[in-house]
Amino acid sequence: MSIETKVLEIIQGKRSAPISRAILRVMSHGYRAGAAIHHAAYKYLLPKTKLSLPVVSIGNIVAGGTGKTPFTHYLAERLSKECEVAILSRGYKRTGKKTVLVRPETDPSECGDEPYLLAQKLPHVKVIVDANRTVSGHLAGVLGAEVVLLDDGMQYRPLKKDFEIAVMHASDLFGTGFYLPRGLLRDSPKRLKSAHLIVLTGVSERGEFEKAEKAIRKYTNAPIVGMDLIVKNSTELASKKVATFCAIASPSRFGQTLQRLGCDVVEKLEKPDHAPFSVDELERLANRAQGQGAQCLVCTEKDAVKLPQDFRCSLPLVPVEIAFAPTFGEEELNQIIDKIIEVTP
Known about the structure:
Rossmann fold, 20% strand
């Protein structure tokens, strides 16, 4: 078990480790102070770059698992019907450092799994990877983009933003209430005050939407839209006996999605977010599951893009194809999209 997994279990209350918990809490005070200094530096001292095209930041105040990438896909798809769109990503945990315009032939390890997935699903949108989003933003303009989406942009301060969108998951709005590494907060909830829109994911019921809305209203008056996942290939998976593997921030939510489809999970393999899987370990997983009657291997789309294109094993592979759909506040969402389109060149 990795250190990252152990820390997550402490954060989630699954592991009783009072001494480790106390150490993590002390460390979280340091993280909180660093975040506050970073925010103040760009608010009062350090310069910001203004691009010649509008910048839409899509981010969160909680580390991982809020649905930021699916929403980035949703917004890019909507905007691309009216204008030329580019997505700027830092390419978290990629192997290289050079600027990458993601193409079909790009190695996912060179650009990161999430940018590669977005480029695959949005062939008409430019996906540019660089830790320096100011550089990639200028490149986007040269390549003909009319608007850029700044993926994971809430903590990226060197670039001036025209729209700030914060994505939050209803099951844990504030990262258990502690900053990293004691909790999952990476920024102060007070930052929500500057948001133009709050996207609340994982909500299908009016009651849960209103409960989350009440908690968020302590920090912002921004419009709130509720969204939930839909599984586009649900008929391939419904009521099947399966084996699963994933390396995502919230594997439990992946399991809940399969549970809603009526899947019977006989074997599973989980790793920390963005970690790779070898062909050999997946073959061993498939062999164990096949002996228990599993009909297929199931993973997220983000995990599937990291596998070799000719990947084969003793069970067929079925990535879960997901998309977001508005459940509450769709009118407010449409208004923001219209405003973004209005300011494009």
